[in-house]
Design goal:
homodimer, alpha+beta, Arc Repressor Mutant, subunit A, Dna Ligase, domain 1, 2 domains, three-stranded mixed sheet, 7 helices, 45% helix, DNA-binding
DNA sequence: AATCTATTGACAATGATTCCCATTAAGTTT
DNA sequence: AAACTTAATGGGAATCATTGTCAATAGATT
């Protein structure tokens, strides 16, 4: 059972790598198996730590690089709005954000109907919900009109 | 007109600082005016740059500290899920996140009805929307039951 | 097996953010 | 208004996450 699953994972990644024209390396496979196995939201550092036992020589750089590759391949997604920098918002009214995936523009969105709507019971059962924030990603008007 | 507005801003911040028992410093006032004036989502660095002319001696450190203070006072909000570290998600199914404000737990949320619902025209008018991501913040069950 | 070249590991470098501490300046008291 | 108290600032060093560089290594191909 377990063996079958592992083989499938390997095959799956092999297939992805082939299609993308990149090599299936030991490191990529181990990282792949690790992130598939764990159902949480690890940082690059945590993944590196978790692989210490299995692949003690793996450099943290490789984890970052592999994760970036995996993101391009659609295997993982980064959480967080942009990358590093923290942004601040002085608008404390209840609102949401539209983020342009091209120029990184952030625009405020108001949607009071959504704010006051009741969440499905499954969601409110997660805990005591304090706030909700919707993030829409897309191409803003300006970028859309600037066709290259 | 402008003068009146400035006085009001000063008074407003003075009131907030008094209530919080902290000093109303020149730096805090300038940063306050800056973030109130601009309707965008600046980084600490950008705020620092913008204040170069007016307060050329202000240290970037002060901007960070002041912003942190302002966040506690409810004057600004940080965008971004956590602070620094980027988290990765290997779950590529359309889903959303619940984030515990206490223990930083991140849990997946599924809400297909929302995913397939039509957005108000005002929102879809922002641009060509590619994805939507809802982030619920609150206290998770475990933290809620661990009453101190 | 030999070859080609992407990928890795090690380490330096960068960028964002925070810590430390002597100096400065709000807010308070005299 | 001058003196005082202590929080807050400025500046530089330190830290943390992430990325760049490059020689050595190991997939993939022949």
């Amino acid at each position: 059972m377990k063996k079958t699953k592992n083989i499938n994972q390997l095959d799956h990644l092999k297939q992805i790598c082939n299609k993308a024209g990149i090599k299936l390396t030991h490191q990529r496979l181990e990282i792949y198996k690790e992130i598939i196995a764990q159902k949480d939201h690890p940082s690059a550092e945590l993944i590196h730590q978790r692989l210490q036992e299995k692949v003690p020589t793996m450099a943290i750089d490789t984890v970052y690089r592999t994760l970036a590759t995996f993101e391009e391949l659609g295997i993982v997604k980064k959480l967080n709005i942009h990358s590093a920098k923290t942004l601040f918002d002085a608008n404390m009214d209840q609102h949401h954000h539209f983020v342009c995936t091209q120029c990184n523009l952030v625009e405020d969105i108001y949607w009071p109907e959504f704010d006051s709507s009741r969440l499905p019971d499954t969601l409110s059962a997660m805990g005591q919900i304090q706030s909700r924030h919707l993030e829409l990603h897309g191409i803003c008007k300006k970028c859309n009109s600037t066709v290259e």
